[in-house]
Design a protein that fits this description.
With 346 residues, this protein is mainly β. The chain has helices spanning 119-122, 317-321, and strands at 7-16, 21-23, 26-28, 32-41, 45-47, 54-62, 67-70, 75-78, 83-86, 89-93, 100-104, 111-114, 124-126, 128-133, 137-139, 146-148, 151-155, 158-162, 169-171, 174-176, 185-189, 196-198, 201-203, 207-212, 218-220, 223-225, 229-234, 241-243, 246-248, 252-257, 262-264, 267-269, 273-277, 284-286, 295-299, 305-306, 324-325, 336-337. It has a 23-stranded mixed beta sheet that branches. The protein has an eleven-stranded parallel beta sheet with strand order 5-7-10-13-16-19-22-25-28-31-34.
Length: 346
């Protein structure tokens, strides 16, 4: 039976000597003093810089109605498989020169799970560094945290997961896979998710952004590079929008399966395939820069495709057609209609 406010602080400022503690690339190589924490937070509290670093030795559960505030510059070091379940609110707001750091002390940790309630309007992660984690941020069950100016790196699964009816605001973050191998996804949006994904830099993943069965997702002004697929759409509707973004140096810029998103005003250049459309896909495509791709549009559906009013790096229709896979390459697929084209780069 727990008591109210049962966040235990074991041996506040106890000395933990860590000499070369290593997990992957996570290394704490100097002696530190750590405030050990874990358990339920039933009433609001602050983790101040004076008690930093905090070592999480048991799962943190923020109860409904409680608010945990973390001061700028605080370090949170997780024991193996530790994490946060946020049923109240978490406010971790650093500054550009005083980040809040969530990292692993041993092995990998399990992430911050926003689970609805008050966390859908109050919770904020701003100027945080999150690393050496399975899935750093999970937004589920109506939660709507603000995630801004964070660096999320060296994770094994998904950087930011947006689940059922979650409305996360994901703005101006860096989501990076700096460790070779693995199969990570930068941002994953699942059924009935409503995120706003704006101004992020996403690099080095299997999928930069993966939208599955989603209906109202806005992907705007992002830079996505060096991924197997920059943006992957699976069973999405025409209310999903990819716009004003740059997709470059990916194997596939935008990959579609049974999806009809709006793809407008993007720079999709330097990819093996700018757009690859699988079965059941009929996107709306306008005013994109499709120059300097090996294939600009790779059609794998029997449907005809309206790809008019885009820039292909040239106005020479023969040269454009040579970069499009359609009926003229295989009679099993439809024609890609690209005329009229834009005559200059948008």
């Amino acid at each position: 039976m727990r008591s109210t406010g049962m966040l235990f602080l074991i041996a506040i400022l106890c000395t933990i000597l860590i000499l070369g503690c290593q997990s992957g690339d996570a290394i704490i190589d100097v002696p530190i003093k750590a405030s050990q924490v874990g358990g339920y937070i039933d009433s609001s509290m602050t983790w101040p810089i004076e008690l930093s670093p905090f070592q999480v030795i048991a799962p943190i559960i923020i109860s409904p109605g409680a608010v945990l505030t973390i001061d700028p510059g605080v370090e949170i070091l997780m024991d193996w498989k530790m994490g946060f379940a946020i049923r109240g609110s978490l406010i971790a707001v650093g500054t550009s020169d005083s980040l809040i750091r969530f990292s692993a002390l041993d092995g990998v940790w399990n992430g911050l799970a926003f689970d609805g309630g008050e966390s859908d309007t109050l919770s904020s992660l701003i100027y945080c560094l999150m690393e050496y984690c399975n899935a750093p941020i999970l937004c589920d069950s109506l939660s709507s945290p603000t995630i801004e100016h964070c660096t999320i790196q060296n994770f094994t699964h998904v950087g930011i997961y947006v689940g059922y009816r979650a409305e996360a605001r994901i703005v101006d973050n860096e989501i990076l896979n700096l460790t070779p191998g693995g199969d990570p996804t930068g941002i994953q949006c699942d059924p009935f998710a409503f995120p706003w994904i704006y101004g992020n830099r996403i690099e080095g993943h299997s999928r930069g952004i993966h939208c599955r069965y989603t209906s109202f997702t806005i992907i705007d002004s992002n830079y996505i590079a060096d991924c197997d697929t920059g943006v992957a759409f699976l069973y999405t509707y025409n209310t999903v929008t990819l716009k004003n973004s740059e997709l470059t140096e990916n194997s596939v810029g935008a990959g579609l399966t049974w999806s009809s998103p709006e793809i407008t005003d993007n720079i999709i250049t330097g990819n093996d395939k700018a757009v690859e459309a699988g079965l059941g896909s009929n996107p709306y495509i306008r005013r994109n820069d499709f120059s300097n791709n090996t294939w600009t549009y790779y059609n794998q559906t029997p449907n005809g495709v309206d790809a008019e009013q885009n820039w292909w790096g040239t106005t020479d229709s023969t040269a454009i057609a040579a970069t499009i896979w359609d009926f003229y390459d295989s009679s099993a697929v439809g024609v890609v209609d690209f005329i009229p084209t834009l005559t200059t780069q948008p």
